[in-house]
Design a protein that fits this description.
- The protein is mainly beta.
- It has one helix and nine strands, in the order H-E-E-E-E-E-E-E-E-E.
């Protein structure tokens, strides 16, 4: 056993996921996933150019078999505003609060945010998206 490390039980993990789903929908609007061309210097730091914004449904997430699953409002996708390879995405609650963020990949790689749309260039793990095209949020879940 390592000193200073907490472990939580299944009931606590479930409660945390349910609380996260509830927190996501606080506010008058909808929760969103904002996609960026650059990885921020630090989590709370400024973001570079926003490439697209995926609006989530309300409720924006549910807990299914111990996994928090996000739900998009428009299954067709979101309009890409700038051409480039997305590197980062943030999840914002309906009131605008930053909830989580992570690197972006295509569906064949292991990024926490997996995107459909565009084509992944040789040697890349994230797709090249073109302004005016649509991007879809792939299956994204948190355990």
């Amino acid at each position: 056993m390592t000193a200073g490390v907490w472990e939580i039980g299944p009931a606590m993990a479930l409660a945390q996921l349910q609380a996260t789903a509830t927190r996501s929908d606080l506010g008058t609007g909808n929760a969103r996933v904002r996609i960026y061309l650059d990885v921020p210097a630090n989590f709370l730091g400024s973001r570079g150019a926003q490439q697209a914004e995926v609006v989530l449904a309300k409720p924006s997430a549910t807990v299914v078999n111990g996994t928090l699953v996000l739900h998009v409002r428009d299954a067709a996708g979101a309009m890409v505003m700038a051409t480039g390879i997305p590197r980062w995405a943030d999840w914002h609650a309906a009131d605008g609060a930053l909830l989580a963020g992570g690197e972006v990949s295509d569906a064949d790689h292991a990024g926490p945010w997996r995107l459909f749309g565009g084509t992944t260039p040789e040697g890349e793990t994230s797709p090249l998206l073109y302004a005016g095209s649509l991007v879809q949020l792939g299956e994204t879940s948190l355990t």
